[in-house]
Structures are given as structure tokens and as C-alpha cells.
């Protein structure tokens, strides 16, 4: 803490200001006291008091924190947004930020690291459940407090249905920990998963996982490069890698990440066997891949061979397959497409407290819930018991929370059971957590009327996941099937993916369809991928339309490109135009390609340049083709293929090497020929080598390396 400055306030809303904790872009944070309670008070600085953005951020943070109650999220105590100097008071968390901890003490130990991971993803799950996306998860926004790790600063959070849509290019968040979605305009809950993973990687290695010294270089690296995970343990790398998938639909959910982190903690403590690594959901779309063609590139020094390569028009098809994403909140869709609904659960029959005073205090999020509810709780009122436990839980007093939730749970109150499970998770008491999870999962809904059906579904889902980690898959499927039947979309998605991986088509389609109909983003995208995998073009497009009509700009681009390959240029143009209006680069590429190919060459070329200059490889490839084939400008074509080679693009490297030879730059051509061989060998090591598309290029590159390049320069 730093001492106050001359113009700092002495008091705000009855809080006595003791000193400065820090300063941000718009505000100053003070340490304050009111009686025995300490708070961190964020105040807008004088020079920003009239700035709408500063006031809006503080108001957003106050609103978000008032909705959230989670032991891993800093709690709001009080606020005054209408005064001369608006402020909010949050609980004072005594401890360093993750950023300071790593800077001054080095990376976290493995168990502490997984504990942090469990805390962060639990906070994300809590926020996402009520439509809140943090958008700025980074080491300086995590405090390693005495009472636990806390996520803070929701100033730029997205609140579903309220927050403005950003203007394209108006990015918020800290670049080194941003997700690819941060550089678009539509928030997605999975952006927090990516940022949390980047933050955890920093906590494990003490440095960035991306290349670059400025925002532009970092943005390119985030969107194009594989993360540098050197320095992470094997367990950490297996946990982190799938969370850093470029496409949000390919990433595991925050809930899956939370459960996986808990599994690793138990493994490291010697309680269970090593958990299965998280899996990404990337699936190549046959509708696109069946139409892509990599033209063989010969570097044998025969001019006719190079000419046949450089003037083959089939090479215009993009080689990088777009992947699929989905909007977190489906909107109304036309009657021609299936309607996506949120969990169709039975209405909550839950009772109110027998004490009106207790009920009012709890509903109003008052500060005296325990005091007001204790009399009726002690008298055995189940709702009051739950309220008391919930208040202790929100204040990270897990021992007292356990006491009261246990009282309710023993009387079959599912509300209390549900939170007792989370309490034991916070207390790292996996034995009791697993015992009560099973009890809750085995409770008949008819035995209690104090909780909605979704709590039973949650418990059954949790029990299923616990059993999967223990390797009891058959038993897990029973619980997960019940959870899915009760309306839990995560359970349905897991079942669908499980059966998909077993190649059980009937069950895969059954559960993925259910998950999609329940509104699961994972389910929708897994269904799209699987339908494409099995060649069901109608089903693929049906759910692509659902996702695109829901407002997902990435899937607008995917839909556009599928129409483009089917030569339905009117539909391709429609969806590309819509996707481009949201700033989607794939849509911009498709619109440029359609426009160019329909004869409006200059207009199309400008759109392609726009997409290419923002890093879209399909647009870069298309421009290379235009200069190479239509304009016969090999020097300009080489500039664009060089960009692909710099991205380690296999076909782009092949073309660039060939073009260099045609332009008389033999030595450079040999250098990139060697790089082509390296890329091919690396693909074999990673299991991404496609022999049908790459074998001929590799054979010819090897012949060239061993022949001409060795003869002229002494190496391949």
C-alpha cells in the first residue's frame, strides 16, 4: 500500500480512506475501513469523471458483481455511482496479484497451479451461467488471497442482452492474454476459457506463450501460431493445450476445464489415477475438404514442370479448412430451421422462507442474511437453512457453509445438497464431495419439492463425470443419460461426443441432436461436425443455419463458403455479406471471391485485400492465384505466397519456392524447398500429414534437394 496523496479523499460513503492500493486506466483503488471491515474502493479519477466510458465501466462492474456470488470472485460491498466521484467498494483481498507472484517468486508449483485453474474456471462457470463474460482475464486481475484465489475487475464484462456490440476494431482486453474472438466484435463465453488458459500458461512458465513485441505481432501470433508451452509440466501441457484452440467451438467448456483441474489435483495428491486429458473438438468438414485440392509442386529443374504448377487454376481452392463456432445465446430462428431452446426444465417449486424478514433480506442481497435467517433456520426451516449456508459460502466461510448445507442435505433438500458438493470442492474434501454427489444423484425428484429439476440433473451430471474420471464409463453413462433426459445440455453433449468417438452413429446423433436442441454450443457444433463427417449434408446445413441465424458470424462465413463451393453464389453472397457486416474475415474473403469471380474484379480484389491484410490465409492464397494466373505478375504473386510461407503453410511454401526459381532466385528457392521438407516431416510427427495431398510434393522436393540444390549449394 502507498500513502495517500494531497488531493485524495479522506472518506467515501462512511469508508475511511487509509492509502492507495493501485491505479488503473480510469480510476484509483484505495484501501478503506468501516468499523472492522476493510474494502478496496475504486474511484474514478477527477480527469475522467465526465467521461462516459469510465462511468459505464464502473457501472458495469457494479452491476456484474451484484449478480455474482462465488468464492473465487471478489465480492461487492457497496457503491455510489451518482455522486461527484463515482465509486464501488469490494472486499479487500489480502495477497499479491498472480502477475506479481510470478514476477517476484517465479512460476507456481504444480498443485497450486491446478488449484488456481480450478478456481478460475469455477468463477467463469458461475459468471457464464447468468450470461456474463469477463473479457479481461489476465494475471493482474487474479489475486492470490489468504482466503483463496479471486478473479477481480469486471469493468469491461459483457452482460448478455445488455452490453453494446463493439465496433469492428474496437477491441477490449489485454492483448497477450486475448483470445482470437477479442479481435472480432461478438463476445463468446469461450473467450474467457482461452484467456484463462493463456494466464495459466504464464503462471506455469513465467513468460508469454505468443511471439511478438507489439499488439499487431501478438495478434497475429494468437490467431496463427501454436502456443509455446515450453517450461510446462506434462500434466500442465495436456491440460492447457486444448483450451487454446483458435476456434471457440473446438475448446472444452469452462465446466469441463474445472472438472479436469479437480481430477489432476486428486491425481497429484495420490488419490486417483491420472485423468484423461481434455480433448479439443476440432473436426474437418468434408463439405469443404472434399473440394479442396492441393496442386502438386515440382521443383525438378524443368521449366515445363514449373509452368504446369504455376498456371494450374485448381490451386485456388483454400487448403485451410474453416472450423465451426456457435453463438452462446441462440436467438429466434425462421420456421424453416429447428428452434433452439434452453433447458426445458420443470419450474422451480422451491419454497420461500417461513420468515418474511429472512426472505426479504436474502432477496435484496442484504448484509444481514445470517442474522435475519438464523432464528427460522434453527427452527428447521429448510429454505432459511439454505440461505444461511449460501451466505457463508459467498463469503468464503466454507466450514460454516458446510455445517448449514449439511443440515439441509440430511433432510433431502437438493438446494443444500447442490451447494454442499461445491463446498466440499472448495475444502478439497473429495471423499465427502463424491459421497454427497452420489446421494444427490440418486435422490428421486419426487422426494423433495425444494429445488428445481435442474439440481438433480446437475448432480447426475457431476456423478457421471466423477465416474468417467474413475474409468467407470458404463456406470457414468447411466447417470449422464438421466442428466441429459432431465435437460442437462452438457451431459447430452458429452454422450453425443462419446458415442461419436465410438462410431455409434445412432446414439451419437440422438444425444448430439438433444444437446443442440437444448441450446448447447458444444452440442450444436459437434452435431454440425459429425453430420458433415458422416456425409449428411442436409443435417450439416440445417444446424449451420441455426447457428448462423443465431448471429454467429464465424458460422455465417462457414455457411457462405459451403454455398460458394456448391456454386450457389447468391446464397454465398447473402451470408458472406451478413458475416462481413460483423467483421468476419472468412465472410470478407468469400464475398471478395464471389465478387471477383462474377466479373467485378476490382471490387472483388479490394475485398480480398481487406481480408488478406487482416491475416485471412484464403484471401492471401486467392490473391496469389490472381496475380499468378490472371495477371501473370509472378513478382506480385510471390509477395503473397511469401506471406503463406511465413505462416508455415505447406502449399504456400511450395508455390513460393517454385516462384523464386522462376524469378531466378535459385538459392532462396532451395532454402524454401528445404523448409517444405521440414514442414512435411513435422506434419508426420504431429499426425497431421495427408499423404494424398502431400506425398508428391514431398517426393519432388526431396529429389530437388538431393539433386540440383545439393549440386549447386552443397546442401538441400
From TrEMBL:
- Keyword presence, ATP-binding: yes
Sorted alphabetically, which keywords does the UniProt record give? Answer: ATP-binding, Nucleotide-binding
**Boundaries of each Protein kinase domain copy?**
15-268
Q: Does the keyword section mention Transferase? A: no
Q: Tell me the segments the record calls region Disordered.
A: 325-355
- A molecular-function term among this protein's GO annotations: protein kinase activity
Q: Which GO terms describe its biological process?
A: signal transduction
User: What SUPFAM superfamilies does the database record attribute to this sequence?
Assistant: HCP-like, Protein kinase-like (PK-like)
What Pfam families does the record point to? Answer: Pkinase
Q: What is this protein called?
A: Unannotated protein
Amino acid at each position: 500500500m502507498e500513502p495517500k496523496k494531497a488531493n485524495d479523499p479522506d472518506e467515501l460513503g462512511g469508508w475511511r480512506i487509509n492509502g492507495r492500493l493501485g491505479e488503473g486506466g480510469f480510476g484509483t483503488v484505495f484501501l478503506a475501513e468501516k468499523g472492522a471491515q476493510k474494502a478496496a474502493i475504486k474511484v474514478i479519477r477527477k480527469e475522467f469523471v465526465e467521461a462516459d466510458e469510465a462511468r459505464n465501466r464502473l457501472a458495469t462492474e457494479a452491476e456484474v458483481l451484484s449478480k455474482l456470488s462465488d468464492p473465487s470472485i471478489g465480492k461487492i460491498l457497496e457503491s455510489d455511482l451518482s455522486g461527484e466521484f463515482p465509486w464501488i467498494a469490494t472486499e479487500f483481498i489480502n495477497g499479491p496479484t498472480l502477475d506479481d507472484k510470478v514476477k517476484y517468486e517465479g512460476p507456481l508449483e504444480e498443485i497450486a497451479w491446478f488449484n488456481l485453474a480450478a478456481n478460475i474456471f469455477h468463477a467463469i462457470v458461475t459468471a457464464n451461467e447468468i450470461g456474463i463474460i469477463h473479457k479481461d482475464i489476465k494475471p493482474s486481475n487474479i489475486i492470490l488471497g489468504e482466503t483463496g484465489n479471486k478473479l477481480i475487475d469486471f469493468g469491461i464484462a459483457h452482460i448478455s442482452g445488455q452490453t453494446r456490440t463493439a465496433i469492428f476494431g474496437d477491441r477490449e482486453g489485454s492483448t497477450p492474454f486475448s483470445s482470437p474472438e477479442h479481435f472480432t466484435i461478438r463476445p463468446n463465453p469461450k473467450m474467457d476459457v482461452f484467456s484463462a488458459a493463456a494466464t495459466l500458461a504464464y503462471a506455469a512458465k513465467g513468460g508469454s506463450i505468443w511471439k511478438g513485441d507489439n499488439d499487431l505481432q501478438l495478434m497475429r501470433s494468437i490467431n496463427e501460431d501454436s502456443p509455446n508451452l515450453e517450461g510446462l509440466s506434462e500434466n500442465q501441457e495436456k491440460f492447457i493445450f486444448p483450451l487454446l484452440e483458435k476456434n471457440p467451438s473446438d475448446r472444452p467448456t469452462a465446466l469441463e476445464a474445472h472438472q479436469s483441474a479437480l481430477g489432476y489435483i486428486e491425481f497429484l495428491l495420490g488419490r486417483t489415477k491420472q485423468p484423461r486429458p481434455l480433448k479439443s473438438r476440432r473436426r474437418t468438414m468434408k463439405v469443404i475438404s472434399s473440394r479442396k485440392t492441393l496442386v502438386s509442386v515440382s521443383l525438378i529443374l524443368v521449366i515445363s514442370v514449373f509452368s504446369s504448377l504455376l498456371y494450374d487454376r485448381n490451386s485456388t481452392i483454400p487448403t485451410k479448412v474453416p472450423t465451426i463456432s456457435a453463438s452462446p445465446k441462440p436467438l429466434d430462428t425462421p420456421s424453416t430451421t429447428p428452434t433452439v431452446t434452453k433447458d426445458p426444465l420443470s419450474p422451480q417449486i422451491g419454497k420461500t422462507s417461513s420468515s418474511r424478514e429472512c426472505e426479504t433480506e436474502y432477496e435484496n442481497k442484504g448484509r444481514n442474511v445470517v442474522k435475519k435467517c438464523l432464528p427460522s433456520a434453527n427452527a428447521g426451516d429448510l429454505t432459511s437453512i439454505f440461505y444461511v449456508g449460501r451466505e457463508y459460502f459467498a463469503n468464503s466461510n466454507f466450514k460454516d457453509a458446510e455445517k448449514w448445507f449439511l443440515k439441509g442435505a440430511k433432510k433431502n433438500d437438493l438446494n443444500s445438497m447442490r451447494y454442499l458438493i461445491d463446498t466440499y470442492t472448495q475444502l478439497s474434501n473429495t471423499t465427502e464431495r463424491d459421497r454427497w454427489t452420489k446421494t444427490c444423484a440418486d435422490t428421486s425428484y419426487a422426494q423433495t419439492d425444494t429445488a428445481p429439476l435442474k439440481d438433480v440433473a446437475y448432480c447426475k451430471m457431476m456423478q457421471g463425470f466423477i465416474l468417467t474420471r474413475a474409468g467407470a464409463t458404463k456406470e457414468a453413462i447411466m447417470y449422464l443419460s438421466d442428466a441429459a433426459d432431465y435437460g442437462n445440455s452438457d451431459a447430452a453433449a458429452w454422450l453425443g461426443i462419446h458415442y461419436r468417438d465410438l462410431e455409434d452413429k445412432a446414439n451419437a446423433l440422438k444425444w448430439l441432436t438433444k444437446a443442440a436442441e437444448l441450446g448447447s454450443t458444444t452440442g450444436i457444433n459437434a452435431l454440425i461436425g459429425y453430420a458433415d463427417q458422416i456425409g449428411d449434408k442436409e443435417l450439416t446445413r440445417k444446424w449451420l443455419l441455426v447457428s448462423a441465424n443465431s448471429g454467429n458470424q464465424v458460422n455465417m462465413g462457414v455457411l457462405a463458403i459451403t454455398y460458394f463451393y456448391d456454386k450457389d453464389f447468391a446464397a454465398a453472397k447473402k451470408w458472406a455479406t451478413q458475416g462481413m457486416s460483423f467483421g468476419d474475415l472468412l465472410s470478407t474473403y468469400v464475398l471478395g471471391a464471389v465478387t471477383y469471380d462474377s466479373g467485378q474484379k476490382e471490387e472483388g480484389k479490394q475485398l480480398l485485400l481487406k481480408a488478406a491484410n487482416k491475416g485471412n490465409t484464403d484471401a492471401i492464397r486467392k490473391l496469389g492465384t490472381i496475380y499468378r494466373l490472371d495477371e501473370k505478375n509472378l513478382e506480385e504473386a510471390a509477395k503473397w505466397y511469401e506471406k503463406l510461407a511465413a505462416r508455415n503453410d505447406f502449399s504456400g511454401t511450395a508455390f513460393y519456392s517454385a516462384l523464386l526459381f522462376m524469378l531466378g532466385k535459385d538459392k532462396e528457392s532451395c532454402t524454401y524447398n528445404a523448409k517444405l521438407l521440414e514442414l512435411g516431416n513435422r506434419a508426420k510427427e504431429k499426425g497431421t500429414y495427408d499423404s494424398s495431398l502431400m506425398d508428391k510434393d514431398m517426393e519432388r522436393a526431396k529429389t530437388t534437394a538431393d539433386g540440383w540444390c545439393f549440386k549447386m549449394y552443397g546442401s538441400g
